[in-house]
């Protein structure tokens, strides 16, 4: 690398430091200093095991690609989180909420009938569907809304796809006395009408988003716009392990309670670690939470199930790892479904929660280094799994979670009987019953 | 002397923004030509993006219309290349990081230099991420325009120190209820920029009222029409050319007077 470029980085290191609020912790300064020293514009700090790096990078992925207007809000959030995550009082309050309000720990349930029926690996289900509000989303939301409150914010906003994150945010806002507004694609407000009414019952205002494809991607756009125009009193409760740093890290940390519990639970039940963890992936929050504590356990396979809609070869799908390529969108460098000019593709899935053209940066990284693998599951396979789990175990899963169950149905029979799979049931399926009935040609309306 | 520096040599600079390819590339070509003839000192030309999150609904709709008309990054470059035979005012491209990244940052900046683009402005690349673009911009002589905002006043100095071409102050100035307050805010921002750099300061104006625009333009070195032209194109489509010419002429006359 040119000497001149090194000089540029060295200069920017000292300038970034002199402009930073907390000089000894100036991350920008550290990065530039390191780039200057190594003469490499791509130097990123941190370990190579999917652990958060100081600039919010996971390998090449991640970053903070947001408009200037939001930069102080992003830094403020980062500083507040770095402070409170080590604050005993904050952690005590959060633990109390998770235990006494959300109902944690969630069960690790041995699905004996399913195991026998599939005739292979022992199948355990991590029952996030049993949480208050019916999905894993509450784990992250309680953390973020508590953080918002500590930061002195009085209003929270959120995007939602299936409505699960919106309902969870509305719930936490009601509990903690915050004003709450939810952005939801108009198409999603129609296919998840019950959740819209739930959010309104909880005292939130729901904005149907009519721009673009009118789904999750556009809801994120609008939530960012809203945050841009009003960040003083407003906290953006992002629902997945995506967006600009520090969101992917914050959401992962709050969701990692899933794998913290399941690791302990499986060791108690079986005396050994599982062979595979299976979870569905849209942005990837339940999968990241389900994987995180096992990343260091190299014998544990981590499998994310993407929504393949009508099939990976059909244009109507949302399988980002299978069909996407590297890009920069919604604040992060990651994998996206897009065209040759970088226009974000309209994606499709029967599941509103997986209907997103990108994936969280840490997943893109785990995929790149081969630590996790990502497989496509079609609408039809997911619907069959939805019906199968209902019939076999008496558990109606969310159509999102049914994507994970569908993959378990494919692999369990090929595995040995002494092997173990843990699949995350990320949410309950009540919200999907009417849509699945319609998919099957039953004229049932909510 | 480069075209951007040159543009600021003769008083207040008028910079209309429009989305390339809305309603189609041929109309955009004509629009830029008539704006240059009627007093525009520089053009900010948007490469449409499917999800322009840093802009409002007017620009988003313009971008979607342009994409529906099959506008691509290459068709915009081709148009600029043709325009360069007709006009000599600077052209700054405004687009998001993804179209540049997917095109290839190096290839994109080389193409800019080849067709005669003077600068690029990327609203989702803040100071913290700009090193990714900087080197290829420098090597190709393309100005990387920096943006600042009122909500991040404390960062204006840091950003301005490294600014090239001009500093773009983002504002959410639409209908003017209190002209003096808005002018004071702009003066504050401009002062912070001027303390750190010699490059000129321009301010974004998102309204469509000529007298408001003239009033705002008294403070900074130039003014960017963020929505006015986009709105005229939305209203008149292919027939927008004469309306746009009139609007630019009226505004420029007001700014000189």
Question: Explain this structure to me?
Answer:
The complex is a heterodimer of chains A (446) and B (257). In chain A, helix 4 (88-100) runs antiparallel to helix 6 (137-150) and helix 12 crosses helix 13 (285-291). By secondary structure, chain A is α/β, with parallel strands linked by helices. Chain A has helices at residues 3-19, 27-38, 71-84, 88-100, 112-118, 137-150, 164-176, 186-191, 193-201, 216-229, 247-255, 257-270, 285-291, 320-323, 361-368, 379-393, 399-411, 433-439, and strands spanning 57-58, 61-65, 108-110, 122-127, 155-160, 179-185, 205-209, 234-236, 276-281, 301-309, 325-329, 331-336, 372-378, 420-425. In chain A, the strands form three sheets. A six-stranded mixed beta sheet of chain A has the order 3-4-14-9-10-13, with helices on both faces. In chain A, strands 1-2-12-11 form a four-stranded antiparallel beta sheet. Helix content of chain A is 44%, strand content 17%. The longest helix of chain B is centred in the C-terminal third of the chain and has 18 residues, at 179-196. Chain B has 257 residues and is an alpha/beta fold. Chain B is built from twelve helices and nine strands. In chain B, helix 2 (25-37) runs parallel beside helix 4 and helix 11 (228-236) runs antiparallel to helix 12 (240-256). Chain B has a nine-stranded parallel beta sheet. In chain B, strand 8, helix 10 and strand 9 form a beta-alpha-beta unit. Chain B has a single domain, classed as Alpha-Beta Barrel (TIM Barrel), CATH 3.20.20. At the A-B interface, helix 1, helix 2, strand 2, helix 10 and strand 11 of A face helix 3, helix 5, helix 7, strand 6 and helix 8 of B.
State the CATH topology of the largest domain in chain A: Rossmann fold
Could you say which structural class the secondary elements and strand pairing of chain B correspond to?
Answer: alpha/beta
Mean pLDDT of chain A: 90
Q: Can you tell me the CATH class of chain B? A: Alpha Beta
In short:
The complex is a heterodimer of chains A (446) and B (257). Chain A is an alpha/beta fold.
